[in-house]
Amino acid sequence: MADKKDKQRLRVTLVKSPIACRAGHRQTVRGLGLRRLHQTVELEDTPAVRGMITRVAYLVRVEA
User: Fold this and answer.
1) How many domains does the chain have?
2) pTM here?
3) Element at 27 (helix H, strand E)
4) Position 24 in a domain
5) Predicted confidence (pLDDT) per residue in 25-50, tens digit
6) 1 lies in some domain
C-alpha cells in the first residue's frame, strides 16, 4: 500500500470571493475546504479534486 507521503499534493488558495457566483460554485469552494479569502488548503491530486478546481478555476490559485 502506498504511503501518504508518496501521493501528490496540491495547494489551493481562494483568491476571489464566491459571494456573487452560482450556488453550485460556492458549494464547490466549500467542498474544497475553503472558507475565507487567501486561505490555503493542501489536497490530494485526484481526478475528483482536479474537476472541482477546474469548475472554480476563476476563484482559486493552484500550486503543485
Assistant:
1) 1
2) 0.87
3) helix 23-31
4) yes
5) 999 999 999 999 999 999 999 999 99
6) no
